[in-house]
Design goal:
InterPro entries: ABC_SsuA_sub-bd (IPR010067), Solute-binding_3/MltF_N (IPR001638), SsuA/THI5 (IPR015168). With about 300 residues, the chain is an alpha/beta fold. The chain contains 13 helices and ten strands. Helix 2 crosses helix 10 and helix 4 runs parallel beside helix 5.
Protein backbone atom coordinates (compact mmCIF):
# COMPACT_ATOMS: atom_id res chain seq x y z
CA UNK A 1 0.00 0.00 0.00
CA UNK A 2 2.83 2.38 0.91
CA UNK A 3 4.53 1.73 -2.46
CA UNK A 4 1.28 2.30 -4.36
CA UNK A 5 0.71 5.63 -2.62
CA UNK A 6 4.24 6.70 -3.40
CA UNK A 7 3.85 5.78 -7.08
CA UNK A 8 0.53 7.60 -7.24
CA UNK A 9 1.98 10.71 -5.66
CA UNK A 10 4.76 10.70 -8.23
CA UNK A 11 2.25 10.53 -11.07
CA UNK A 12 0.28 13.52 -9.70
CA UNK A 13 3.39 15.64 -9.24
CA UNK A 14 4.66 14.80 -12.71
CA UNK A 15 1.31 15.75 -14.19
CA UNK A 16 1.52 19.12 -12.40
CA UNK A 17 5.05 19.66 -13.65
CA UNK A 18 6.38 19.88 -10.11
CA UNK A 19 9.43 18.19 -8.59
CA UNK A 20 8.43 14.67 -7.61
CA UNK A 21 9.00 12.57 -4.56
CA UNK A 22 12.15 10.50 -4.82
CA UNK A 23 11.45 7.34 -6.80
CA UNK A 24 13.82 4.53 -7.75
CA UNK A 25 13.57 3.48 -11.38
CA UNK A 26 15.20 0.05 -11.28
CA UNK A 27 16.03 -1.00 -14.84
CA UNK A 28 16.77 -4.64 -15.69
CA UNK A 29 18.87 -5.18 -18.79
CA UNK A 30 20.92 -7.81 -20.59
CA UNK A 31 23.99 -7.62 -22.82
CA UNK A 32 21.57 -8.03 -25.75
CA UNK A 33 19.86 -4.76 -24.77
CA UNK A 34 22.10 -2.53 -26.88
CA UNK A 35 19.91 0.52 -26.54
CA UNK A 36 19.57 0.29 -22.76
CA UNK A 37 23.23 -0.63 -22.27
CA UNK A 38 24.45 2.35 -24.30
CA UNK A 39 22.10 4.70 -22.41
CA UNK A 40 23.59 3.40 -19.17
CA UNK A 41 27.12 3.90 -20.45
CA UNK A 42 26.32 7.51 -21.34
CA UNK A 43 24.28 8.34 -18.22
CA UNK A 44 21.51 9.75 -20.43
CA UNK A 45 18.49 8.69 -18.40
CA UNK A 46 20.01 9.85 -15.15
CA UNK A 47 20.36 13.36 -16.58
CA UNK A 48 16.81 13.43 -17.95
CA UNK A 49 15.02 11.93 -14.95
CA UNK A 50 16.88 13.53 -12.05
CA UNK A 51 14.94 16.83 -12.39
CA UNK A 52 11.75 14.79 -11.99
CA UNK A 53 12.99 13.31 -8.73
CA UNK A 54 13.63 9.89 -10.25
CA UNK A 55 16.81 8.01 -9.41
CA UNK A 56 17.86 5.45 -12.02
CA UNK A 57 19.44 2.19 -10.89
CA UNK A 58 20.66 -0.59 -13.19
CA UNK A 59 20.68 -4.35 -12.75
CA UNK A 60 22.24 -6.76 -15.26
CA UNK A 61 20.87 -10.25 -15.99
CA UNK A 62 22.14 -13.03 -18.26
CA UNK A 63 18.66 -13.77 -19.61
CA UNK A 64 15.03 -12.68 -19.50
CA UNK A 65 13.53 -15.25 -17.10
CA UNK A 66 15.54 -14.19 -14.02
CA UNK A 67 15.00 -10.54 -14.94
CA UNK A 68 11.22 -11.01 -14.83
CA UNK A 69 11.46 -13.01 -11.62
CA UNK A 70 13.17 -10.00 -10.06
CA UNK A 71 10.51 -7.72 -11.52
CA UNK A 72 7.73 -9.84 -10.07
CA UNK A 73 9.49 -9.70 -6.69
CA UNK A 74 9.53 -5.91 -6.86
CA UNK A 75 13.28 -5.46 -7.40
CA UNK A 76 13.01 -4.27 -11.02
CA UNK A 77 10.63 -1.56 -12.30
CA UNK A 78 11.06 -1.98 -16.06
CA UNK A 79 13.19 -4.19 -18.26
CA UNK A 80 13.68 -5.73 -21.68
CA UNK A 81 13.37 -9.38 -22.70
CA UNK A 82 12.62 -11.56 -25.70
CA UNK A 83 9.25 -13.08 -26.55
CA UNK A 84 9.15 -16.12 -24.26
CA UNK A 85 10.00 -14.84 -20.74
CA UNK A 86 6.80 -12.78 -20.39
CA UNK A 87 4.73 -15.81 -21.47
CA UNK A 88 6.22 -17.94 -18.70
CA UNK A 89 5.87 -15.07 -16.20
CA UNK A 90 2.22 -14.46 -17.05
CA UNK A 91 1.42 -18.17 -16.86
CA UNK A 92 3.01 -18.24 -13.40
CA UNK A 93 0.78 -15.38 -12.24
CA UNK A 94 3.28 -12.52 -12.32
CA UNK A 95 1.63 -9.09 -12.34
CA UNK A 96 3.74 -7.76 -15.19
CA UNK A 97 2.68 -5.89 -18.33
CA UNK A 98 4.11 -5.41 -21.82
CA UNK A 99 4.69 -1.68 -22.32
CA UNK A 100 6.62 -1.45 -25.59
CA UNK A 101 8.53 -3.23 -28.32
CA UNK A 102 11.50 -3.10 -30.66
CA UNK A 103 11.38 -4.19 -34.33
CA UNK A 104 11.44 -7.94 -34.91
CA UNK A 105 14.94 -9.37 -35.26
CA UNK A 106 14.66 -12.98 -36.49
CA UNK A 107 18.28 -13.16 -37.63
CA UNK A 108 19.64 -12.22 -34.21
CA UNK A 109 19.14 -15.75 -32.84
CA UNK A 110 20.29 -19.08 -34.19
CA UNK A 111 20.68 -22.80 -33.66
CA UNK A 112 24.41 -23.54 -33.66
CA UNK A 113 26.15 -26.86 -34.18
CA UNK A 114 29.88 -27.72 -34.17
CA UNK A 115 31.54 -26.99 -37.51
CA UNK A 116 32.20 -30.70 -38.11
CA UNK A 117 28.77 -31.87 -36.94
CA UNK A 118 26.82 -34.40 -39.02
CA UNK A 119 23.67 -32.36 -38.30
CA UNK A 120 22.81 -30.72 -41.62
CA UNK A 121 19.07 -30.14 -41.47
CA UNK A 122 16.50 -29.41 -38.77
CA UNK A 123 15.25 -33.00 -39.14
CA UNK A 124 18.72 -34.18 -38.10
CA UNK A 125 18.06 -32.78 -34.62
CA UNK A 126 16.03 -35.89 -33.82
CA UNK A 127 17.56 -37.74 -30.89
CA UNK A 128 20.00 -34.91 -30.16
CA UNK A 129 20.77 -32.91 -27.01
CA UNK A 130 19.90 -29.24 -27.56
CA UNK A 131 20.94 -26.54 -25.09
CA UNK A 132 18.93 -23.39 -24.50
CA UNK A 133 17.80 -21.22 -21.61
CA UNK A 134 14.39 -22.38 -20.40
CA UNK A 135 11.66 -19.83 -21.01
CA UNK A 136 13.88 -17.69 -23.25
CA UNK A 137 13.44 -16.61 -26.87
CA UNK A 138 15.96 -19.34 -27.76
CA UNK A 139 13.64 -21.89 -26.18
CA UNK A 140 10.84 -20.83 -28.53
CA UNK A 141 13.19 -20.89 -31.54
CA UNK A 142 13.97 -24.52 -30.69
CA UNK A 143 10.24 -25.33 -30.43
CA UNK A 144 9.48 -23.60 -33.74
CA UNK A 145 12.38 -25.34 -35.51
CA UNK A 146 11.12 -28.75 -34.37
CA UNK A 147 7.61 -27.91 -35.58
CA UNK A 148 8.98 -26.97 -39.01
CA UNK A 149 10.92 -30.27 -39.17
CA UNK A 150 7.76 -32.15 -38.12
CA UNK A 151 9.46 -33.39 -34.98
CA UNK A 152 7.90 -33.52 -31.56
CA UNK A 153 9.52 -32.01 -28.49
CA UNK A 154 10.01 -35.53 -27.14
CA UNK A 155 12.19 -36.29 -30.17
CA UNK A 156 15.02 -34.28 -28.61
CA UNK A 157 16.62 -34.02 -25.18
CA UNK A 158 16.35 -30.40 -24.07
CA UNK A 159 19.20 -29.23 -21.85
CA UNK A 160 18.29 -26.07 -19.95
CA UNK A 161 21.31 -23.90 -19.20
CA UNK A 162 22.22 -20.22 -18.86
CA UNK A 163 24.07 -18.73 -21.87
CA UNK A 164 27.49 -19.06 -20.24
CA UNK A 165 26.81 -22.62 -19.06
CA UNK A 166 25.44 -23.58 -22.48
CA UNK A 167 28.52 -22.27 -24.28
CA UNK A 168 30.78 -24.29 -21.99
CA UNK A 169 28.69 -27.43 -22.54
CA UNK A 170 28.67 -26.84 -26.30
CA UNK A 171 32.44 -26.37 -26.48
CA UNK A 172 33.19 -29.54 -24.52
CA UNK A 173 30.74 -31.56 -26.64
CA UNK A 174 28.20 -32.25 -23.89
CA UNK A 175 25.38 -31.07 -26.16
CA UNK A 176 24.87 -31.50 -29.91
CA UNK A 177 23.38 -28.08 -30.63
CA UNK A 178 22.94 -24.74 -28.91
CA UNK A 179 20.13 -22.27 -29.49
CA UNK A 180 21.21 -18.76 -28.54
CA UNK A 181 20.74 -15.05 -29.19
CA UNK A 182 23.07 -12.09 -29.77
CA UNK A 183 25.57 -11.05 -28.52
CA UNK A 184 26.38 -14.60 -27.35
CA UNK A 185 25.59 -15.83 -30.87
CA UNK A 186 27.97 -13.30 -32.47
CA UNK A 187 30.66 -14.06 -29.86
CA UNK A 188 30.45 -17.79 -30.60
CA UNK A 189 30.77 -17.14 -34.33
CA UNK A 190 33.84 -15.00 -33.75
CA UNK A 191 35.41 -17.68 -31.57
CA UNK A 192 35.03 -20.14 -34.46
CA UNK A 193 34.33 -23.84 -34.60
CA UNK A 194 30.59 -23.35 -35.04
CA UNK A 195 28.15 -23.58 -37.92
CA UNK A 196 24.72 -21.96 -38.12
CA UNK A 197 22.14 -24.67 -38.66
CA UNK A 198 19.36 -22.10 -38.85
CA UNK A 199 18.73 -18.53 -37.82
CA UNK A 200 15.31 -17.50 -36.59
CA UNK A 201 14.32 -16.30 -40.07
CA UNK A 202 11.15 -18.05 -41.13
CA UNK A 203 10.78 -19.59 -37.66
CA UNK A 204 10.20 -16.71 -35.27
CA UNK A 205 9.92 -12.94 -35.26
CA UNK A 206 12.20 -12.97 -32.21
CA UNK A 207 10.34 -9.97 -30.86
CA UNK A 208 11.84 -7.85 -28.11
CA UNK A 209 9.60 -6.35 -25.45
CA UNK A 210 9.84 -3.77 -22.71
CA UNK A 211 7.94 -4.80 -19.60
CA UNK A 212 7.06 -3.27 -16.26
CA UNK A 213 5.43 -3.99 -12.96
CA UNK A 214 1.73 -3.31 -13.54
CA UNK A 215 1.51 -0.90 -10.59
CA UNK A 216 4.56 1.02 -11.80
CA UNK A 217 3.22 1.35 -15.35
CA UNK A 218 -0.20 2.48 -14.13
CA UNK A 219 1.25 5.13 -11.84
CA UNK A 220 4.12 6.37 -14.02
CA UNK A 221 3.25 6.69 -17.73
CA UNK A 222 5.23 9.94 -17.82
CA UNK A 223 8.40 8.22 -16.65
CA UNK A 224 7.95 5.44 -19.21
CA UNK A 225 7.43 8.05 -21.94
CA UNK A 226 10.71 9.75 -21.00
CA UNK A 227 12.51 6.39 -21.15
CA UNK A 228 11.01 5.52 -24.54
CA UNK A 229 11.87 8.91 -26.03
CA UNK A 230 15.44 8.57 -24.79
CA UNK A 231 15.70 5.08 -26.32
CA UNK A 232 14.28 6.27 -29.64
CA UNK A 233 16.69 9.20 -29.79
CA UNK A 234 19.58 6.92 -28.85
CA UNK A 235 18.70 4.50 -31.66
CA UNK A 236 19.83 7.19 -34.11
CA UNK A 237 23.25 7.21 -32.44
CA UNK A 238 23.44 3.41 -32.64
CA UNK A 239 23.04 3.66 -36.43
CA UNK A 240 25.26 6.70 -36.94
CA UNK A 241 28.72 5.41 -36.05
CA UNK A 242 28.84 1.64 -35.56
CA UNK A 243 32.53 1.50 -34.66
CA UNK A 244 32.22 4.16 -31.95
CA UNK A 245 29.09 2.54 -30.57
CA UNK A 246 30.72 -0.90 -30.55
CA UNK A 247 33.82 0.45 -28.79
CA UNK A 248 31.68 2.21 -26.17
CA UNK A 249 29.68 -0.94 -25.45
CA UNK A 250 32.83 -3.07 -25.40
CA UNK A 251 34.43 -0.83 -22.80
CA UNK A 252 31.35 -1.12 -20.66
CA UNK A 253 30.46 -4.83 -20.99
CA UNK A 254 33.84 -6.43 -21.64
CA UNK A 255 32.73 -8.12 -24.86
CA UNK A 256 34.84 -7.50 -27.97
CA UNK A 257 33.89 -4.48 -30.05
CA UNK A 258 33.81 -6.72 -33.14
CA UNK A 259 31.05 -8.77 -31.47
CA UNK A 260 28.88 -5.68 -31.20
CA UNK A 261 29.73 -4.65 -34.77
CA UNK A 262 28.46 -8.03 -35.97
CA UNK A 263 25.35 -7.66 -33.84
CA UNK A 264 24.60 -4.18 -35.19
CA UNK A 265 25.19 -5.32 -38.77
CA UNK A 266 22.75 -8.19 -38.30
CA UNK A 267 20.09 -5.97 -36.77
CA UNK A 268 20.59 -2.22 -37.22
CA UNK A 269 17.39 -0.95 -35.58
CA UNK A 270 16.68 -0.88 -31.85
CA UNK A 271 14.02 1.82 -31.93
CA UNK A 272 11.27 1.60 -29.32
CA UNK A 273 7.54 2.06 -29.81
CA UNK A 274 4.38 1.42 -27.87
CA UNK A 275 2.74 -1.91 -28.60
CA UNK A 276 1.34 -2.54 -32.08
CA UNK A 277 -1.76 -4.73 -32.60
CA UNK A 278 -0.04 -7.25 -34.90
CA UNK A 279 2.44 -8.27 -32.23
CA UNK A 280 -0.40 -9.53 -30.04
CA UNK A 281 -1.17 -12.34 -32.51
CA UNK A 282 2.50 -13.29 -32.78
CA UNK A 283 2.87 -13.38 -29.03
CA UNK A 284 -0.29 -15.45 -28.59
CA UNK A 285 1.20 -18.00 -30.98
CA UNK A 286 4.25 -18.27 -28.71
CA UNK A 287 2.05 -18.76 -25.65
CA UNK A 288 -0.12 -21.38 -27.35
CA UNK A 289 2.95 -23.34 -28.48
CA UNK A 290 4.37 -23.55 -24.97
CA UNK A 291 0.99 -24.47 -23.49
CA UNK A 292 0.45 -27.15 -26.13
CA UNK A 293 3.71 -28.77 -25.07
CA UNK A 294 2.84 -28.58 -21.39
CA UNK A 295 5.75 -26.22 -20.73
CA UNK A 296 3.56 -23.60 -19.03
CA UNK A 297 0.95 -24.58 -16.42
CA UNK A 298 -2.10 -22.92 -17.97
CA UNK A 299 -3.43 -21.34 -21.14
CA UNK A 300 -3.15 -17.56 -21.16
CA UNK A 301 -4.41 -14.61 -23.18
CA UNK A 302 -1.42 -12.39 -23.71
CA UNK A 303 -3.65 -9.38 -24.32
CA UNK A 304 -4.50 -9.45 -20.60
CA UNK A 305 -0.92 -8.33 -19.95
CA UNK A 306 -0.80 -5.66 -22.67
CA UNK A 307 -0.60 -2.19 -21.13
CA UNK A 308 -2.86 0.48 -22.57
CA UNK A 309 -1.48 3.87 -21.52
Amino acid sequence: MQVTRKLGALAVLLALGAPALALDLNIGYQKSALNLASLKAQGTLEKQLKPLGVEVKWFEFQAGPPLLEAMNAGSVSIGMTGDSPPVFAQAAGADIVYIGQEPAKPESSAILVPANSTIRTLADLKGKRIASTKGSSAHYLTVSALQKAKLSYSDITPVYLSPSEARAAFERGSVDAWTIWDPYYAAAQRAGGVRVLSSGKGLTGNNTFYLAQRAFAKANPKVIDVVFKALTANDKWLKSDVKTVAATLSGYTGLEAATYEAMLARNPSYSVSYLKPAVQQEQQKVADAFYGLGLIPRAIKVVDAFWKP
